[in-house]
Amino acid sequence: MPRQLPLAIKDFTGRAEHIATLDALLPAEDEGIGTGAVVISAVDGTAGIGKTTLAVWWAHRVQGRFPDGTLHANLRGYGAGDPARPGEVLEGFLRVLGLRAEQIPMGVEAQAGMFRSLLAGRRMLIVLDNANHADQVRPLLPGTPGCVVVVTSRESLTGLVVTEAATRLTLDLLSEVEAVELVTSILGPVRAAAEPDAIRELVRYCARLPLALRIAAGQATNPRVTVGDVVGELSDERLRLDTLSQDADERAAVRAVFDWSYRRLPAEPARVFRRLGLHPGEEFSVEAAAAVAELDLPGARRVLAALAAAHMIEPAAGHRRYRFHDLLRAYAADRAEHDDAPAERERARTALLTWYAHHAKTALGILFPAHRDWDPALRLATHARPEIELRGCEETWAWTDLEVDNLVAATRAADQHDEMPLTLLLVTTTAMILHRRGRWDDLFDLYSRALAAARRSGDRRAGLETLINLGETFQLLGQWQDADGVLQTALNMARELKDPWREATALLQLGNGCTAQRQYTQARNYLLAALPLTPGAQHGRIEAQTEVVLSRVFFGLGDYQEALRHARRCLALSRQAGDHEGQVHSLCGMAKIHHRLGEHQRAIEQCEQALGVASLQFFPTLVADTLDTLGIVLQATGDTARAIDCWREALRIYDDCNPEAGKYVRERIHALEDESSMPPEE
Question: From the CB of residue 618, how many other CB atoms can be counted at a distance below 10 Å?
Answer without folding.
Answer: 18
